[in-house]
Write a structure and sequence with these properties.
The complex is a heterotrimer. Chain B is built from 22 helices and 20 strands. By secondary structure, chain B is an alpha/beta fold. Chain C is mainly alpha-helical. Chain C starts with 9 loop residues before the first helix and ends in a 10-residue tail after the last helix. The chains are: A mainly alpha, B alpha/beta, C mainly alpha. The interface between A and C is large, with 64 and 52 residues.
C-alpha cells in the first residue's frame, strides 16, 4: 500500500512539473511573445528586438524555462512588469488571504453538504431529497456573481449587517477578518455546496444499490445501522474525491468572488495581471493555483487509497 | 405451535409499472422440510424468496396475499417488527457471495453482526457460535478464518461463510437463492454437500431456489415448478422427476435427462482438417493463457473444448481469430498458415472463421436493425447490391427460424433465444467454413438453449460447417460433440472422440469433472459422497 | 406529447419552454428589442417605467434592449464554443478508445496535464497572451473545455469497445472509421446529449464569468456577464440593475439543467434505498 501511495505522490510531482511546462509554453513559446504583447502592434522591429534582449527572450526557450522553474520553486517569481515590484512580496500576503477565504468557506461547506448529501440519498425520492435537489439545481445554475450581488443587496445595502467590500489589512484581528469576509465566504459556500451535495448524494446512492446493502437489510439490521456501518465505510472513498474535486472548484471560484468583493487575494491579483498583460504575474498566480489544485487531488487520491479495504489488506 | 413454519397465501408481486411478477402463488413449508423452487429466468422464483421475508426489490411492490411465519401474519406487523423477524426467524443466502459481503469489514464481524444487533447473543457467544459454524461448514483454519476480508478468500469459501452468516441467529427458515450457480462444478458439489448437511443437522426448513433440476433433486423434499410468475406444478421430488403431470415440467425433465447420454458418434478423422492449431501458445503478460495446444476441426465436425472458468478455453478462441497473438506454434486454415494477429489478415481468411458469443445481448448492436446486422457481412464480403442483400437477409432469417419481417426490428425487442438466432444468422451470412461457438447457450434458459443446439446441429447437416464448441457444460458436450478436448490451466489434458473421453480409463481431472455434474436422481449426491469417503478411507 | 419516445416531466417542459423563448429572443433580437443596442436613450440607471421596462443602464441605454441583444451574444458564443468543444472532444475521445495504446496514452496524458490546471486559470493565462477577441475567446474555451468532453467520450467509447458487437465488426475486418461511426457513435449518443447540455451550461456561465471579469466579450457588444460588470456599482445604491442580466443567465441555465436532469432520469433506475421493507 505504501508503494501505491508513494507512486501517487511521485505522479503528483510529475504532474506539477508538466503543468509548469504547459504554463510556460502557453505564455512564452506560442506565437506573439511577451514583447509584442506588451509593446502592442505599433512597435517597430528594432524596439521589439531591444525589448526582447532586455527580457532575455533572445535565449533558447528551454534555458529560460529551467531558469524560471528553479527560481519559481524557491519562491522567486521575478518582478512585475507594470510596477516593477517583486512579485513574491505582493503574492505572499495575498496567498494567505486567499487561503483564509477558501478555508473559511470549506469549513462551512464540507460538513454541511456532505451531511445533507447523505441525508438526501438515504431519503431518495422523499420530500427532503426533492427539496435538496431543486435548491441545489438552482444554485448550480446561477452565476457566482448573482449570488454575491443578491447577498450584497440584502445583507449589506438594505440591512447593513455585513460590509459589501471585504477589504482586509495586515493588522486586522482574526474575528474582524471573519466578519469582513463573511459575505464572500457565504457566496463561495453556496457555490460549492450545491455541487458537493449532489455528487455526495450520487455516490451514496450507487453504494446503496450494491447487493451487500440488500443483504444487510435482509439481515434485519436497522436502517441507521445499515447506513452507518455498511454504506458509509464504502462511500468514504467516493466522498473524499467529491470533496477534493469541489475544493479545487472552490479555489477557482475564489477568483470571481474576490473581484466582486474587492478582496485582496491571489485571484484579484491574477485578473489584474491579465488585464494589464503582466505575464510574470500571470505565470506566478497560474502556478500557485495549479499547484494548489494538483496538491488537493493528490491528497484526495492518497486518502482514497488509505480508506480502501482491498488496498489496506492485500490478499 | 403448528407444524407449518412458513405459509404464503395468494402472494402477488407487481412492478411499479404494473407488470405482474408473481401471480397468486401459495405454498406451505413444514419444519425440517426443503421445498425447491424451480423455473427459468423471469419465473419469479427469487421474488418469491424475497417476498417470504416481506422484502421487495426497488421497483417492485408486494400487492396482495398473506405471509405467515409460525402462524404470525408478517405483512400485518409494523415495519420495525418485520425488520426484527428478518435474520432472526428467516435468513437469506444469495447467489453471489462476493457481492453480498461488505468489502469493508472482516468476515467474522459480518457473521456475528446479526445475533448481536438483534440482541440474541453477546459478542463472545456470537463468536463462539460462528466458529462452530465455520467448523461445521468445513472451512479451513476455522479459528482464524473470520479474521480475513471477503476479497481474501475463494468463492466457494465465501459461499460457505454466507451460509454461516445466515445461520448465525439460528433461524427457523433459510431462503437459498441459487447458492451454487456462480461456482465451478467441482466447487459446486462441495458447497452443495455442506449445505445439505447443514440443513439436515440443524433440522432447518428451507426454500431452495434454482434453475437446475438435478441440483434441486439432491436437496429438496418437494419441488414447485414456476413459469411466468405462476405455479405450474407442485409435488414430491420423486414424482416431479419420474412422473411429471404437466407438459412443461415433462419437457424440462426430458431435456435435462437428454444430456446424460452421448448422442453423436465420432466420424472418421479426415486427412485434411479445415482448421488445425498446432502447439500454439498465447500469453497475457507472463501468464500462459494457452499453452502448447494442438487441436483440429474438420468439415461437418463438432469439436468441444471443455474446462472450468479460467482454464483458457475462451483464450484459445481468441488466439485462433487473432485477438490474442500467439507466441509459438501455428494456426492453419485449409492448410494455409494464418497471421498471428488480426491486423493484416485478409478478408477471405476473416470470412472463413466466424464467432458466436455467450451473451447475445452484448453481441448485437442495440442501435442497428436486425436487417443491418445480418446484411452487413453480406455486403462487406460479397459486394452485393442492397436488393440482393435484402433477399439474402430474408433467406438467412428463415434459415435460423425467425420471421422475415424481423429485419426491420431492433435487437432490443427480441428475447434471448431470438437474439442468439440473429447472431447465428450473422455468422452464416459470411458463409464461413468454421464457426467458433463460445458458450452460446450458457446465458439462455434450458429449453431455449435446447432449441439453439438443435438449430446448430441442423445447420451443420445442411451446410457442412465445422464447429469449435467451447463450453463448461458436460451435458452439452455429450449431446453434440463428435470429439472433445478437456482444458486445464491453458493446456489440453485429454482429447479424443467424445465417447472415449467419457469412458474409462479417465484422466483424473476429467473423472473429477464428470463425477461433479449432478445427475437427475435424488440419491446421486449421497452416492458420490459415499464413494468419495470410501476412497479416502 | 413525446420527445424521443419519452414523455417529458413538468419540470422538463418548463426547461424546454425557457430554452425556446430565449432562443427566439436571441434569433429575432433585431425585431423584438424596443431600442438599438448601443444608443443612450435616457439618464443613468433610470427606474423601470412604461418606456424602459427594466430601466436604463450605467450610460443610459435601455436595459431590456441590451438584455435582448445580450442573449444573442452570450448564448451564441456559448453555443458555438460547446459545439466546437464537442466535435474536438468526441473525435479525440473516440480515437483514444479505438486507436490503440499509443494514441490513447499520448492523448490521455496530455489531457491529464491540461485538466490539472483549473479551466479559468488556464483561460486567463492564454487570454493574457492573446487578448480577448471573440474568436480567441471561443477557440480558447472550446479547446480547454474539450478536455472534459474527451474524458467522457473516451470513457463511454471504452465501455462500448469491449462490447462484443464491436469485436465482431473488427473481426469482420471493418476499418476504424466504420467502427467509430456505425458501432460506437449511435450508442454513445444518449450520454453525450445530456453531457452537451451540461457543457453548454458550464461554458455559458464561463463566458459570462470571463466577461464579468472584463476579460470576455468586449464592449460595445451587449453581453450578460459584461452588463453585470458595467452596472455593478448600482448595487451599492440599492438598485437592482446588475441583477437583471445575472437573473437572465440564471434562468437560461436553470432551463437547460431542468432538461438535462430529465434526460438523465430516463436512464437512471431506483436504487436499493427505495426497496419495500
Amino acid at each position: 500500500m505504501f508503494r501505491t501511495i508513494a507512486i501517487r505522490i511521485v505522479l503528483g510531482l510529475l504532474t506539477l512539473f508538466a503543468v509548469s511546462v504547459l504554463i510556460f509554453v502557453s505564455t512564452e513559446i506560442l506565437p506573439g511573445d511577451v514583447a509584442s504583447a506588451v509593446l502592442g502592434q505599433g512597435a517597430t522591429p528594432e524596439t521589439l528586438a531591444v525589448f526582447r534582449a532586455e527580457l532575455g527572450l533572445d535565449r533558447p526557450a528551454y534555458t529560460r524555462y529551467f531558469e524560471w522553474f528553479f527560481k519559481a520553486i524557491q519562491g522567486d517569481f521575478g518582478v512585475a512588469m507594470t510596477n516593477k515590484r517583486v512579485i513574491i512580496e505582493t503574492l505572499e500576503p495575498r496567498f494567505l488571504n486567499t487561503m483564509f477565504l477558501a478555508g473559511y468557506a470549506a469549513l462551512i461547506a464540507v460538513p454541511l453538504s456532505v451531511g445533507l448529501g447523505i441525508v438526501a440519498a438515504i431519503n431518495e425520492g422523499k420530500a427532503v431529497d426533492k427539496v435538496a435537489n431543486v435548491l441545489s439545481l438552482m444554485t448550480i445554475s446561477v452565476p457566482e456573481f448573482f449570488i454575491a450581488y443578491i447577498l450584497i443587496l440584502f445583507l449589506a445595502v438594505q440591512y447593513d449587517i455585513f460590509p459589501s467590500l471585504s477589504t482586509v489589512f495586515a493588522d486586522m484581528s482574526f474575528t474582524e477578518r471573519l466578519y469582513v469576509a463573511a459575505l464572500p465566504a457565504a457566496t463561495l459556500t453556496m457555490l460549492v455546496m450545491a455541487h458537493m451535495l449532489r455528487m455526495t448524494r450520487t455516490s451514496v446512492l450507487s453504494i446503496m444499490s450494491q447487493p451487500y446493502i440488500e443483504m444487510a437489510f435482509l439481515k434485519g439490521l436497522s436502517r441507521s445501522h445499515v447506513i452507518l456501518r455498511h454504506a458509509l465505510p464504502n462511500a468514504a472513498a467516493p466522498i473524499i474525491s467529491v470533496v477534493a474535486l469541489n475544493l479545487a472548484y472552490l479555489i477557482v471560484g475564489v477568483v470571481v468572488i474576490e473581484v466582486v468583493f474587492v478582496y485582496p487575494g491571489v485571484g484579484q491579483y491574477m485578473v489584474d495581471g491579465v488585464s494589464k498583460r503582466d505575464l510574470p504575474v500571470v505565470q506566478a498566480c497560474g502556478l500557485i493555483f495549479a499547484g494548489a489544485f494538483v496538491g488537493l487531488n493528490t491528497i484526495a487520491d492518497v486518502l482514497a487509497i488509505l480508506v480502501n479495504p482491498r488496498l489496506r489488506n492485500p490478499r | 405451535m403448528t407444524d407449518t413454519i412458513l405459509k404464503l397465501d395468494n402472494l402477488r408481486v407487481e412492478s411499479l409499472s404494473g407488470l405482474v411478477i408473481v401471480d397468486n402463488v401459495s405454498l406451505e413449508l413444514k419444519r425440517g422440510e426443503v421445498l425447491g423452487l424451480i423455473g427459468e429466468s423471469g419465473a419469479g422464483k427469487s421474488t418469491i424468496g424475497l417476498a417470504s421475508m416481506v422484502y421487495a426489490r426497488a421497483g417492485c411492490r408486494i400487492t396482495g396475499g398473506r405471509v405467515e411465519i409460525d402462524g404470525d401474519s408478517i405483512r400485518d406487523l409494523s415495519a420495525d417488527d418485520r425488520r426484527k423477524m428478518r435474520g432472526q426467524r428467516i435468513a437469506y443466502i444469495a447467489q453471489s457471495a462476493a457481492a453480498s459481503f461488505n468489502p469493508a469489514h472482516r468476515l467474522i464481524d459480518q457473521v456475528c453482526e446479526m445475533p448481536i444487533e438483534h440482541g440474541l447473543m453477546t459478542a463472545a457467544e456470537a463468536k463462539a457460535w460462528a466458529l462452530e459454524l465455520f467448523r461445521a461448514l468445513d472451512l479451513p483454519n476455522p479459528d482464524t478464518f473470520g479474521e480475513r476480508y471477503p476479497h481474501q478468500v475463494s468463492g466457494g469459501q465465501l459461499q460457505r461463510a454466507m451460509a454461516a452468516m445466515a445461520m448465525s441467529c439460528k433461524p427457523d427458515i433459510l431462503v437459498l437463492d441459487e447458492p451454487t450457480t456462480a461456482l465451478d462444478v467441482t466447487t459446486q458439489i462441495e458447497v452443495l454437500a455442506l449445505l445439505k448437511k447443514l440443513i439436515r443437522d440443524y433440522n432447518m426448513a428451507a426454500l431452495y431456489i434454482t434453475h437446475d433440476l438435478a441440483v434441486v433433486a439432491q436437496v429438496a423434499d418437494r419441488i414447485m415448478v414456476l413459469r411466468h410468475g405462476k405455479m405450474v406444478e407442485l409435488g414430491a421430488t420423486e414424482q416431479i422427476l419420474l412422473h411429471p403431470n404437466q407438459e412443461y415440467t415433462a419437457a424440462l425433465v426430458a431435456d435435462r435427462k437428454a444430456s446424460d447420454k452421448i448422442a453423436v458418434e465420432a466420424p472418421p478423422e479426415q486427412a485434411m482438417p479445415l482448421l488445425s492449431v498446432s502447439s500454439a501458445t498465447g500469453v497475457y503478460g507472463t501468464f500462459k493463457a494457452v499453452n502448447n495446444v494442438t487441436i483440429t476441426v474438420s468439415r461437418s465436425e463438432t469439436v468441444a473444448v471443455v474446462g472450468e472458468s479460467g482454464s483458457g478455453k475462451s483464450s484459445l478462441a481468441r488466439l485462433i481469430v487473432g485477438l490474442l497473438p500467439r507466441t509459438a506454434g501455428d494456426v492453419k486454415l485449409n492448410g494455409k498458415s494464418l497471421l498471428s494477429t488480426l491486423k493484416g489478415r485478409d478478408r477471405e481468411d476473416l470470412r472463413q472463421i466466424q464467432l458466436i458469443y455467450q451473451q447475445p445481448d452484448v453481441a448485437l448492436n442495440p442501435r442497428q436493425t436486425i436487417g443491418e446486422i445480418i446484411g452487413r457481412p453480406v455486403a462487406f464480403y460479397f459486394n452485393r447490391s442492397p436488393e440482393e442483400v435484402k433477399t439474402r437477409v430474408a433467406e438467412l432469417l428463415r434459415q435460423v427460424g425467425l420471421p422475415e419481417d424481423y429485419a426491420g426490428r431492433l435487437s432490443t425487442a427480441l428475447s434471448g433465444g431470438q437474439k442468439q438466432r440473429v447472431c447465428i444468422a450473422r455468422a452464416l451470412a459470411a458463409e464461413p467454413q468454421i464457426i467458433i461457438c463460445d458458450e452460446p447457450t450458457s446465458a439462455l434458459d434450458q429449453l431455449v438453449a435446447d432449441d439453439i443446439l438443435k438449430l446448430l446441429k441442423r445447420l451443420q447437416d445442411d451446410l457442412g460447417v465445422g464447429y469449435l464448441f467451447i463450453t463448461h457444460d458436460l451435458g452439452i458436450v455429450r449431446r453434440i460433440a463428435h470429439r472433445t478436448a478437456v482444458m486445464l490451466r491453458g493446456e489440453i489434458i485429454a482429447q479424443g472422440p467424445t465417447a472415449q473421453i467419457f469412458s474409462p480409463p479417465f484422466h483424473p481431472y476429467t473423472e473429477n469433472l464428470l463425477a461433479s455434474v449432478p445427475e437427475m436422481r435424488t440419491d446421486w449426491l449421497d452416492e458420490v459422497l459415499a464413494k468419495r469417503s470410501g476412497a479416502a478411507a | 406529447m413525446r420527445i424521443f419516445g419519452y414523455k417529458p416531466s413538468l419540470s422538463a417542459w418548463i426547461g424546454i419552454l425557457i430554452i425556446a423563448i430565449f432562443l427566439i429572443i436571441a434569433i429575432f433580437a433585431d425585431w423584438i428589442a424596443p431600442f438599438p443596442e448601443e444608443e443612450t436613450v435616457s439618464a443613468t440607471w433610470d427606474s423601470p417605467s412604461a418606456d424602459y421596462l427594466l430601466g436604463t443602464d450605467n450610460i443610459g441605454r435601455d436595459m431590456l434592449s441590451r438584455l435582448i441583444f445580450g442573449a444573442r451574444m452570450t448564448i451564441g458564443v456559448a453555443l458555438v464554443t460547446t459545439i466546437l468543444s464537442f466535435i474536438l472532444g468526441t473525435v479525440t475521445g473516440f480515437l483514444a478508445a479505438v486507436g490503440g495504446q499509443v494514441i490513447d496514452q499520448a492523448l490521455s496524458r496530455l489531457v491529464d496535464v491540461m485538466l490539472s490546471i483549473p479551466l479559468l486559470i488556464f483561460a486567463l493565462i492564454i487570454l493574457s497572451m492573446f487578448g480577448s477577441s471573440i474568436p480567441t475567446l471561443i477557440i480558447t474555451i472550446a479547446v480547454l473545455d474539450s478536455t472534459r468532453v474527451f474524458r467522457l467520450s473516451r470513457a463511454v467509447a471504452m465501455n462500448l469497445v469491449v462490447m462484443e458487437y464491436v469485436e465482431v465488426a473488427r473481426l469482420r475486418g471493418e476499418g476504424l472509421w466504420w467502427v467509430m461511426r456505425r458501432e460506437i457513435l449511435p450508442n454513445a449518443l444518449p450520454p453525450m446529449i445530456s453531457e452537451f447540455g451540461l457543457r453548454f451550461c458550464f461554458n455559458f456561465l464561463f463566458v459570462a464569468g470571463l466577461s464579468f471579469l472584463g476579460l470576455g466579450i468586449q464592449p460595445p457588444f451587449a453581453d450578460w456577464g459584461g452588463m453585470v460588470r458595467d452596472n455593478a456599482k448600482a448595487i451599492s445604491f440599492g438598485l437592482p440593475a446588475p441583477l437583471w442580466p445575472a437573473f437572465a443567465i440564471a434562468i437560461m441555465t436553470v432551463g437547460v439543467n431542468l432538461v438535462v436532469d430529465w434526460i438523465l432520469s430516463i436512464n437512471s433506475r431506483p436504487s436499493g434505498a427505495s426497496a419495500e421493507m
